[in-house]
Amino acid sequence: MTVLVVLGLFFVSQLPAISNVGTTDPNKTEGDRPPATDSDGDKIPDVHENLFSDWINFSSPDNRAVAMKGLDRDDASDASLDIDLDGLNATEEYCWPYPAECVDPSFTRGLTGMINESGERWYLDPRVSDTDGDGLPDGFEAHMCEKLGGFDQEEKRYVCEEFDPLNASDADLDPDNDGFDVNRDGFLTVNELLTSPEEYLYGAPSNWTNEIDGLRCYAPNPESSILSDWPFISENANVTGLTNILDACARNGTDDIIDEYIWLGTNPIEEDSDRYNFDGVKHRRLFPSSGDGITDGWEIHFGLNPLNRSNALIDLDNDGWDANRDGIISMDAARSKEALALGEQLSTLEEYYVHLDDGNMVRSGMRSVELGAKEGTYTEYLLTPEATSGEISVINHDIREFYDDGSNLWIGTKLGLTVIDFESGSSIDYSLPQGHDLHDMIMLESHVVMVTEKGVWISEVNDGSLDDIVLWDYFPGRYTAGAQLVAGGSDEYVIALGYGGFGSVFQISDITVTEYSIGNGISNAMDTGNATATSIVHVDVSSGPLTLFVGTDVGLLTVETSTARDEATPNWKFYFSTEPTQVATDIEDLRVIGPEVDKNPATVNVLEADGPIGGESQILWIGTPSGLHRYDLVSGLLIHSGDYEHQGVNGETIDQANDVNSIYSTGDQLLVGSSWGL
């Protein structure tokens, strides 16, 4: 057998090589090129040039025609061209994430390009200045990546944690955290960030189109800076491998630029970008770019120039104080705190320090203390993105609701739910879809109901956990408040209301969820009052009928009903609207709102039913912008002030301390949360 195998191999080896060529007759060939060729010898394979061979045509925001020529496999000159003016020529874009030397035969590398989320290989497009569409041109991102140490000397390739020209996530990032916390909640939301694209484009005209106007940098002649610190651009081979950035810099839109070979926007990796000073005569360069002590986002928010340090010591709104009464408000001569204290101006920098308040920033989120404890029990809980593995955290800082089921703490936040098991030291998050901001979380015996801006979600609860969201029941609509209805039997009922007469009642059993319309009486009253629901409670009134209380943005609606689906006619306990309606204004029983709170005194922020533990409700606590109100459900009296209002500190009224947003009864005490504090 062995002999036969060996002989077989011998005979096979004598056969000619098998070819899949259709013919070897030169007169019958079609002229196709062999695979993996480089026809023009520019070291970019034909297959790559074919991929980007089509022209791209579009219009700029001001309707200028943009025509980007594609690559030509028969034209070697395009390898060195920067067609899209992004600071990278065609060879550099082909080689990315390797340098342009990747085309040299001696250069060791893998495949160029990157694998995207779809599993496809993605390359920088030589016809599009911003391949990933994040608002940052490819060359700018490559430059910033290199500046942050993103070039791996051993692998000879760029590894970009940030500023990756093939990763669009940079569009929503603020690496230097120099945005402005407009609402002072301690967090920078997406709208408050000063993102990298915003910093790159700072000062640019609204019609700026990179493929026509070039990069946002200034290079008046074919040289480069000897400096490499921001904002300067150097092409010195000792500091950079990117040598085509300056060739793509803008020639227009550079009026009043006092330096050259610089980026024109603010610095996306340093929070304070001021790079020149105006002394009243001329603009003078700052080197290195040392800033003015004020973050870029703060200056931009208040209309200041984040590139000009001189505005830090100017009192633009003339709100200083002539302390020595000599008729002159002396200037702040320097930026030191000692010099600022001597000057009588309230300069921009001093106003910024007032904003910082010595670091006494209140951060929204979840905190806890033990009742009765005076020290040692305060705990602050991190947001899930900030927490490390194993730490208890919450999904979002905007907390809307709490519920303790005896084993777990359920937390309803704007973006979803968090369930915390303190005994095991663990937490789990359940996100709501984008735009479905939570208004109310209602815990039932075996379900949780989430009332959101775009609908009602209902999920079963099993041992402190929820099903996957694909198994939740969903009912679309804009709902703004909800509550459980008092009902007998095994099924449970929840009412959810929104604006005007919109609303539903949900019957929830172990098997199904059924949606019903609300009663015409409630619907008509809400519609006539042009009201939006803000807080709802359904109570079994002591010595009285089941009553539904609907707090709205214009007053408190009451109706005696057991189902919220009947024809019962509601009444307004108090009402006030700035818009003309058919409902009469009635706010005589409300506490007079203070001048420091510019809100509707009849708006109901929160309702809390109270009574003996396990008994019927006797009191309804009402929180409004004008204060805390006690509604006696037995006598019908509505009282306020006295013990029910904040008395101030040291005899002085505290602004917004009576703007009540949350109420919780412990049975012995009432915890009141206001816009000022707890």
Can you tell me about this structure?
- The protein is an alpha+beta fold.
- Among the domains are: 46-172, no CATH class; 478-678.
- 11% of the residues lie in helices and 25% in strands.
- It contains ten helices and 38 strands.
- The strands form 13 sheets. Strands 20, 21, 22, 23 and 24 form a five-stranded antiparallel beta sheet that branches. Strands 16-17-18-19 form a four-stranded antiparallel beta sheet, with no helix packed on it. A four-stranded antiparallel beta sheet has the order 25-26-27-28, with no helix packed on it.
- The termini are far apart.
- The model is unreliable at 1-19 (pLDDT under 50).
Features:
single chain, alpha+beta, five-stranded antiparallel β-sheet, four-stranded antiparallel β-sheet
Strand content: 15-25%
Query: If you average the pLDDT, what whole number results?
Result: 89
Structural class: alpha+beta
Helicity level:
10-25%
Radius of gyration: 34 Å
| Low-pLDDT sequence parts | 1-19
Apparent shape:
globular
What is the overall number of helices? 10
Count of DSSP strands: 38
Biggest β-sheet description: 5 strands, antiparallel
| First and last CA, distance | 94 Å
